[in-house]
Amino acid sequence: MQNNSKLEKIFLNNKDKILIQNIDNSFLTYENFWKKSLFLKSYLITSGLKNGDIVLVKSNNCLEYLNILISCAMGGFVFCPIDNQLKDKQISFYKKILNPKIYLDDLSILPSIENNDLIEDENIKINYDNNYLIMMTSGTSGEPKGMMFTLNNIIKSSSFFAKLVGYDFQSKIYHILPMHYMAGLINTFFSPLTAGSTIILGQQFSSTSLLDFWNNPVKYNANSLHLTPSIASFLADLSRDNLIVKNHTQNYREIISTGSYLFPNITKKFEEKFNFRLLSCYGITEAGGPLTLQNWEDTFIINNVGSHSPEVEFKSTKINSHDQQNTLFVKTPFMMKGYLNDLPHSLKCSLDLDFEGFFNTQDFADYENGKIIIKGRRKDIIKKSGELISLAHIENSALKIEHIKEVACIGIDDEIVGSKIIMFLVFNNSLDCFDKVAEIKNELKKSLKRIEIPDKFMPVPELPKTESGKILKRVLIDSYIN
Amino acid sequence: MDIEAISNKIKKWFEKNSGDIPDNSEDYFISEYVDSFSIVNLVFFCEDEFKIKFNSEDFQKKEFKTLEGLVNIISKKV
C-alpha cells in the first residue's frame, strides 16, 4: 500500500486498527478491509468493468456493500445504491436510465478472499475527481433524479462531518442506517472511516431489529449512534430494559438524530427513557450531506438545528417580494457535481447556483449568528422518516388504478415521522368508495415502497380546484387539519 | 380471558390495521403484516387491551412473531 493521499493514507495510517466490527464477533482491520476491497476491484475488472462504468447496488447493509464502495473508488467505477425495497418495475426503470455495467442485488455471491496474504500490494492510483457516486432522489415531477458526486466531494464532506462531530480513533459507531441514504453513507461510514474510527456494522434498522435493538451496541461497546427521529421515537416506545440501556447510553459521546426535523416531544421522550439528550443535525444531499450539528444548548431552542464549521456558508433571504419566509441557501466545498439531466444518453450534470455560488435548499429558514432555525419545507416533496418522497409519484401510481378518477396527496406534519401522507380520492363510482379503500391500498403496494403508501385515505366526492383546474392542495391541508 | 378471546381481539387488530389476518404460525414480520410503525401500535394495543406489560425477553422470543405465539405470551400474563 503506497502512501499517496487521502483514502490510501487513511488505510495505511490505521492498518492494524479494527475498521469493521461485525455482530457475529468477526472483524476486519483497516488493512484487511483494504485488501478485500482490492480483491473485489480486481473481480469487477475481470467482470468487464472499466473506468466510469456504473455499478448499481440494491442490498441490505453488509460488509460486502462497504467493500464494493471502496472497490469502486479504487477502480474509478460509479457506485449507485438504490433502496432495497424497490419493486421490479422501479428497478427496471433505474436499469433503463442508468444503463449500469453490473447490477448487484445479492452481494453474498461475490467472491471472497480465503487468505488475505495472497493479495499483493498494488500501486493504486485513485482519481478523486472521477465521477464516483450517484444518489437517486424523488424529483418534483414524480420521476427520480440522479445526483452525481465525485470521490473528492464524498471524502471532503465526510472529513468535514467527522470534525464537526469529533470522531476519532476511539469512536465506535453503531451503523444501522440504510446506505442508499446519504446519512448511511456519510455519517456512519465515510466520516468514521476518515477519522480512523471503528464501525460496528449492525443489522439495517427494521421492525424486527427494533425489538432487540440494544443487544449489539451493548455487546460491542458502541459509543456513537445515528438515528432518525422515527427510530428514536420507536426505541423510546419499545425499550423495556431501562436500567441496562440507561447504563449503556452513559458511555456514548453522542447520539445524533438525522434525516428530518426532530420534534421536542421525541427529544423529551428519548431523554426520559435513556437519560441521554439527542442532538439533531441538518443536511442536504445535494450539498454533500450533513452540514450542521446541535450542541447541548441548541437542543432547547425549537427549530434550531445547530451550527456549522467555516468551510460551509449559509444565507437566508426572501426569493420573491411576496414571500413570508426566508429561503435557506448553502455553499459547500463538497457540493454535488450536479443533477443528471441527460439520462439515459449521458452522465452530463447541471447545477443551478445563484450569482454568489449558493444552492437553494428549498427549505424555509432563518440564519442568524451562525445558527439555523428551520421554519418549514416545501410540500410537493415531503420528508417522511428521513426519506424524500414525491407526492406526484404516488398520485401517478394511484391514477393507474381502475376505480380512481382523481387523486391528490398532501403531507401533514407529524412529530414522529416528519410528514404523513394523506391521499384524497375521487372514485368513478362514489357509492362503494369506502369498500374500495383496502383494495386501493393493496394495489398501491404493488408499485410503491412501503414508506410511500399513504398513511390515510380520504374518499371525497370532488377535489377543490382553481378555475384553471389546478387542485387546491392548501384547501385540502386546511380541511384535513380542521 | 381465554385464549380464543385474546386471539379474536388480536385478529381484529390485524384486520383493521393490516387489511388482513396472518395465519396462526406465520411470521407476521416476514410477511410484512407489520412495519416499525405498526409494531409499536400493536404492542401498545396489547398492553392497553389486556392490561399487561411486555418485557424485552418477550420481544426476543420467536413466538412473539406469530399470532399464536403472541396470544400464548399474552395468555400467560393476563
Write up what this structure looks like.
The complex is a heterodimer of chains A (482) and B (78). In chain A, 31% of the residues lie in helices and 26% in strands. Chain A contains 14 helices and 25 strands. In chain A, strands 2-1-9-8-10-11-12 form a seven-stranded mixed β-sheet. The N and C termini of chain A lie far apart (64 Å). By secondary structure, chain B is mainly α. Chain B is globular, with a radius of gyration of 11 Å. The chains are: A alpha/beta (482), B mainly alpha (78). The A-B interface holds A 205-208, 210-212, 215, 230-231, 234, 237-241, 416-417, 438, 441-442, 450 and B 19, 29, 32, 34-40, 43-44, 53-56, 59-60, 64-65.
CA radius of gyration of chain A: 23 Å
This entry's quaternary arrangement is heterodimer
Helix content of chain A: 25-40%
- Count every beta strand of chain B, where a strand is a DSSP E run of 2 or more residues: 0
How many domains, in number, for the residues of chain A? 2
Question: What's a quick, concise take on this entry?
Answer:
The complex is a heterodimer of chains A (482) and B (78). Chain A is of the alpha/beta class.
Layout: helices, strands, pairs:
The complex is a heterodimer of chains A (482) and B (78).
Chain A: H1 6-13, E1 18-22, E2 27-29, H2 30-46, E3 54-58, H3 63-75, E4 78-82, H4 88-98, E5 102-104, E6 131-138, E7 144-150, H5 151-165, E8 172-175, H6 182-194, E9 198-201, H7 207-211, H8 215-219, E10 224-227, H9 229-238, H10 242-249, E11 254-257, H11 264-274, E12 279-280, E13 283-284, E14 289-290, E15 313-317, E16 327-331, E17 338-340, E18 349-350, E19 359-368, E20 371-377, E21 381-384, E22 387-390, H12 391-399, E23 404-414, E24 418-427, H13 433-447, E25 456-459, H14 473-481
Parallel strand pairs in A: 1-9, 3-4, 3-5, 8-9, 8-10, 10-11, 11-12, 24-25
Antiparallel strand pairs in A: 1-2, 6-7, 7-17, 13-14, 15-16, 16-19, 17-18, 19-20, 21-22, 23-24
Chain B: H1 3-18, H2 36-50, H3 56-60, H4 67-75
